[in-house]
Design goal:
Distance between the termini: 76 Å
CATH superfamily: endopeptidase domain like (from Nostoc punctiforme)
Strand content: 25-35%
Largest sheet: 6 strands, antiparallel, barrel
Number of domains: 1
Order of helices and strands: HEHHEEEEEEEE
Structural class: alpha+beta
Strand order of the largest sheet: 3-4-5-6-7-9
Shape: globular
Number of helices: 3
CATH architecture: Alpha-Beta Complex
Helix content: 10-25%
């Protein structure tokens, strides 16, 4: 018995849809990365649901995302243009901070390595010198990186220079990046105190 053309098209659609849904699951399946050891205490069992208890991971959205699109969606900030311009564009519109705050957008200054700058959303403050961020397109593939540790490496603990966890090598990234500051749409819920 030969299937009708309509049944063949339906089968092809079901197969294509199934493949489309399974590709992101396969792309997300990777070895568990090593959690960075920064000298902070290990989370207790009752803290397992906190963001820092999750391992860094990569999400592959159906459409390529840039860091500014992702930060705008997550933060609600109505800032447009290159990430390196967000700091100056936020002036007189949003709260600006030198220290990280949960739900604030961290603005990476432009450099030779990241010419257009970069923005990321702070999801947790681990210690005065470490935070957790979510951000998009850090690896230049349109991906979303979740639960990525960032370490303040500035001499004065002022968050002017940072290193970002490299999920591919499971260690702190080799590059130091300059930070313009942190932007929030309203007074942030948590602000890290310098040197505490």
């Amino acid at each position: 018995m030969t299937p009708s053309p309509g049944a063949t098209r339906l089968s092809a659609c079901v197969l294509a849809l199934t493949s489309f849904l399974l590709i992101p699951l396969h792309a997300n399946a990777q070895e568990a990365p090593v959690v960075p050891d920064t000298g902070t205490a290990v989370a207790s069992e009752d803290q397992d649901s906190s963001p820092s208890s999750f391992l860094p991971s990569v999400e592959w959205p159906a459409k390529r995302l840039f860091c500014v699109q992702y930060a705008r969606l997550r933060s609600g900030l109505a800032i447009f243009g290159d990430a390196k311009l967000w700091w100056s564009k936020a002036r007189d519109l949003y709260e600006e901070f030198a220290q990280p705050a949960v739900d604030a957008v961290m603005v990476f200054s432009g450099s030779q390595r990241i010419r257009r700058g970069h923005v990321a959303v702070v999801t947790e403050i681990v210690s005065p010198r470490e935070i957790i961020i979510d951000h998009a397109n850090w690896q230049n593939h349109g991906e979303i990186d979740h639960n990525m540790p960032v370490m303040d490496v500035s001499a004065k603990n002022d968050w002017s220079k940072v290193r970002v966890w490299d999920i591919n090598s499971n260690q702190w990234g080799a590059h130091v990046y300059k930070i313009s500051g942190f932007i929030a749409g309203q007074q942030p819920a948590v602000v890290a105190a310098a040197g505490s």
